[in-house]
């Protein structure tokens, strides 16, 4: 290959790497031109190839912003069909009978510690909020954290962790009381005061939802911070007898039925897939 | 450009994306040949270009495994100089005086919720253990979780979360008692029984270490599981008067001095950088 072809190849590889590592970030053409000591016209051609490939392979959208202050922005996305396939595979894994715990709970911790699965879940949830302005992802300790982090990687915004127990390392906190759906008990949750700015647009995520009490607590906390709730997405929800504390949420998985006697769990895709896009 | 050049460009972009998304995973040439309906000889050429570019740009190592069962394996790495620059920038951020909390604690939660920073920290810590066989990353809830997840992304192994409070959703657990270094109290920590296999090789990570009591607790827990400790790396350690519970560990940052009276924090690079590589 000639020298210029080699340089194009190297640029394409490194630009791909850079864009994937900086989702939702405006990168100027000048940045790339300097990084590779190449003309902006060559960079433009490179980006056109990357844009086309990302689209064809379902990696995401490469937005082009024209003008002097312009550049490109990579928005990770997952094709609808691919997300459905992934969630169907998850339904099978969740239905494994040795996941059944006393009280009808479902063991999830192994899944929520797998990097490959978290990447997929993060990409699926982030895809739902591509068009929204989001300043922070919020979750509650401990099991929501991996999901919040996975989503925050793809949206490229920070995540904040609400806690049920106060910790000296959090500084001043704001707390709210909430009704835990499953036990009807009044509980308390708190968030470090400096972790969320007033007016922030917040996406709430969690691992599991029954009555929705915990998520509702986070909703109150968002109000206390004079912030704004953009949406709620949970990894899994379970069937709930009675009135849920919240109505408007998205779930990837729906635990339809748990039978402790016959040791069966039946899991189907959640309402994320209710309407075809 | 001719058709074949376009195809090479598209392959390079998509292969880069695929390899970055599957670190430490053996990918056969056949996999790529089928994915792009291309000859293995072309794929080999592509991979040689990617290997060279990854090396030049400090993205990592692309290992080539020859033979019928062979293929390539991407090992993420960070150049020593780059990691040092990143940690120096972190030292400055940690030294900000409004991070000082009552009792001489340092506020870290905002940093440990930033995806860009977590990616860097994950890459730096994972770089230290490239050559080691690791089966799981272990940490303790809650603040260690983001670091464990970040490291697990780059090593492509699951992470497990040790908890101080028992949760019904964890199933049967194994617990140990440990002496909390800072308070000299006896505390308890536990890990879900099914989360770690006997003989697993475990890397322990945590956000902050003072006396090392918590990390020492995880060490006992690893013994209880008849697993093996590979190493310990903490994001930050602070100066400790007296005998630490553990000796052999790595830190990215060292909080040398905290003065609550003058409100100053002095942070320098940790022992990760003690010996030049």
From TrEMBL, chains A, B:
UniProt domain Phosphoribosyltransferase: residue ranges: 110-250
Gene Ontology molecular functions: DNA binding
InterPro entries, per the entry: PRTase-like, PRTase_dom, Pur/Pyrimidine_PRTase, PuR_N, PurR_Bsub, WH-like_DNA-bd_sf, WH_DNA-bd_sf
Keywords: DNA-binding, Transcription, Transcription regulation
Span of domain Bacterial purine repressor N-terminal: 7-76
Residues of the signal peptide: none
Gene3D superfamilies, A to Z: 3.40.50.2020, Winged helix-like DNA-binding domain superfamily/Winged helix DNA-binding domain
Entry's Gene Ontology BP terms: negative regulation of DNA-templated transcription; negative regulation of purine nucleobase metabolic process
CDD domains: PRTases_typeI
Keyword Iron found: no
Oligomer and partners: Homodimer.
Family statement drawn from the similarity comment of this UniProt entry: Belongs to the purine/pyrimidine phosphoribosyltransferase family. PurR subfamily.
NCBIfam families: purR_Bsub
Annotated protein name in UniProt: Pur operon repressor PurR
Source organism: Enterococcus moraviensis ATCC BAA-383
